[in-house]
Design brief:
The protein has 301 residues and is an alpha/beta fold. It has one domain: NAD(P)-binding Rossmann-like Domain (Rossmann fold), CATH 3.40.50. Helix content is 41%, strand content 14%. It is built from 10 helices and 8 strands. The protein has helices spanning 17-28, 51-61, 76-90, 113-143, 158-162, 168-188, 205-208, 212-215, 231-237, 277-290; strands at 8-12, 32-36, 65-69, 95-97, 150-155, 193-201, 249-253, 256-259. Strand 4, helix 4 (113-143) and strand 5 (150-155) form a beta-alpha-beta unit.
């Protein structure tokens, strides 16, 4: 039996790259897929195209069920329309895969306010808005006595977990998404909803122009950067089998799956009284010496 048979899944930013791979993988496992995509350029600008409709036709041509949506997921009303489309078309909603986003890379000292706002908006508010409307539906269903096995799957990034030179806005938004995932897991579990995040590494429009050599497609053998390598984990997280997994961030690349170890309490010194400024320096150095060495920021010299 298909892993996600009859489950209704929203995938944002689904027309290309990781989102496309996720949508195809869910459809291949029997899910009914809402393909959301604005069809814009890598930086979020440019004319809309029919990429979402084309993917829907591909899924239907393979015998699956899908519907296209062109709403802006960072627009609160647009996100509500997206969730409502799933309900109206397929009669329910089981999984939200928050994937949509774009980049406007810039060294921090050169970052412009409008670039910062645009990147944070699409990634962080986009994750919030779609999940918020889905959570309201699931909460109401649970309060009405219906048993749920619903899923939120967010997309963070190595940049969000470790930081990335030249990507301050993107890194900040992706870090916030990891924290948002923890809060969603803690608050929504009572309704039968899990929340997890992935930090994927794959060949997409965002990565192939920056990490050209790393993302190059090999002439033969296993293509480790194929975005389809990430989707099996996403599909499993969207299935009923993952009901006991929540509040986790997974790193996934090629054939590798790992659980990221995030912020945790480290060494502490308690004086039992207020510290003098002259005392703090020595204590801080002792604490740093006792703490694990942080993973370097991507791109740092």
């Amino acid at each position: 039996m298909d892993l996600c048979a009859e489950r209704v899944v929203i995938v944002t930013g689904a027309a290309r790259g990781l989102g496309r791979a996720h949508a195809l993988a869910f459809a291949g496992q029997g899910a009914k897929v809402v393909v959301n995509d604005l069809g814009v350029d890598l930086d979020g600008t440019g004319p809309q195209n029919d990429a979402a409709d084309e993917l829907v036709e591909e899924i239907r041509g393979d015998g699956g069920e899908a519907v296209a949506n062109g709403d802006d997921i960072a627009d609160y009303a647009g996100a509500k329309r997206l969730v409502q489309l799933a309900l109206d078309t397929f009669g329910g909603l089981d999984v939200v895969v928050n994937n949509a986003g774009f980049v406007r890379d810039r060294m921090f000292a050169n970052a412009a306010e409008d670039e910062w706002d645009a990147v944070v908006r699409v990634h962080l508010k986009g994750h919030f808005a779609v999940s918020r409307h889905a959570a309201e539906f699931w909460r109401d269903q649970a309060k009405a006595g219906n048993s749920l096995s619903a899923r939120i799957i967010n997309t963070s990034s190595g940049a969000g977990l470790m930081g990335s030179v030249g990507q301050a806005a993107y890194s900040a938004a992706k870090a916030a998404i990891a924290a948002l995932t923890l809060v969603q897991a803690a608050e929504l579990g009572r309704y039968g909803v899990t929340a997890n995040a992935i930090a994927p590494s794959a060949r997409t429009r965002m990565t192939e122009g920056v990490f050209t050599e790393m993302m190059a497609q090999p002439e033969s053998g296993f293509d480790a950067m194929d975005p389809a390598n990430v989707s099996p984990l996403v599909v499993w997280l969207g299935s009923v089998e993952s009901r006991d997994v929540t509040g986790r961030v997974f790193e996934v690349e090629g054939g590798s799956i790992g659980v990221a170890d995030g912020w945790h309490h480290g060494p502490t010194r308690d004086k039992g009284d207020r510290w003098l400024p002259s005392e703090v320096g020595g204590v801080v150095r002792e604490l740093i010496a006792a703490a694990p060495t942080p993973t370097p920021v991507y791109g740092a010299q």
